[in-house]
Specification:
CATH architecture: Up-down Bundle
Number of strands: 0
CATH superfamily: Heme oxygenase-like
Helix content: over 70%
CATH topology: Heme Oxygenase, Chain A
Distance between the termini: 45 Å
Number of domains: 1
Amino acid sequence: MAKGFSQQLKNRADKIWRAIYGHPFLRELHAGTLPMDRFTYFIFQDYLYLLDFAQVLCLGGAKSTDLGTLEIFTRHALIAVEVERSFHATFGRTLGFSRRQLDHTPKGPITEAYTRHLQAVARGGSLGEIVAAVLPCYWIYGEVGKRLTRRLPKGPKIYREWIATYASEDYWKPVREQIRLMDRLGAPAKNDERKLMISHFLLSSRYEFLFWDQAYTLKRWRV
């Protein structure tokens, strides 16, 4: 599916992505043996992450130079706010916590660092840099969903539902849109901008690994 610059980025991040696929959080979730407190921690932090992610997409829309690209970013921001956050709130009801609890949970250390990285790129970078920074989140979740849906766990139903969401065609449609946009913006980019795109893509990929790791280790601020 991926061609051009997006495939180059994916190839550069291959070692990081393979580490993600092999992380014990995902291996145990796939087996249905992941402790529920770790999954709950993940849902809380992912919910908080999405607010910043939607804001970054809005900033991408503000830097768009044509209506088609603006439409992609505004629609994706709306998905993050309405669909994804509703999705997490539904999980919350299943797991026994409220929207208020979600909204009043502090960001974990990795959540804070990752969202600050995205916000910094969105405010100071080009549109191509923004797409490079947000694309790992889109793409990695889709790849994880596809890999794990090959054999759904026999454990908690909520794990199967989570996997099915990210393996679905509804989820993959915006992933493909961002991949195509990355190819379109990467092709004419000058060398200096391309270097920044690669740097942002790799750093976001590393933060994706650390985000799973934060949930698995229940990492919190020590002081």
